[in-house]
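Summary for the lay section of the report: proteins are chains of building blocks that fold into shapes. Here we show the chain for Succinate dehydrogenase assembly factor 3 and then a coded description of the shape we predicted for it.
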Amino acid sequence: MSLINHPEKVRRLYKTIRRLHRSLPEDLRVLGDEYAKAEFKAHKNAEPQFVSTFMTEWSSYAVQLSKQLGVRGAHLAKPVGSNLQVEMLDLFTEEQLRQLFQLYSEAKGDNEIVTNDEKR
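The coded shape description reads as follows.
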């Protein structure tokens, strides 16, 4: 049995991610902080069936990022990030695909994002 309750685990994971982001280049740090904040806030009252996946994926992100950054910071570590496997896209909802595209556009500096209303 865990000595730490679920809300405390979520808080610790979020703080860990924010701490890891401090070692990123400024533009990536800001983008990562904003994205993590929005995701954790959006999932604050998530249905129980989504909580396990949410925690697993963000924990994996934190572990991967800590390995990539290394102990000396981003300037001496491996490249940050990893490629998304095409098979994973089949598991995404339409809303998640929109969010992924929006994140991609923001990372590339493309401010023209097409919304559903604009497509019609």
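Put simply, here is one thing we learned. The radius of gyration is 16 Å.
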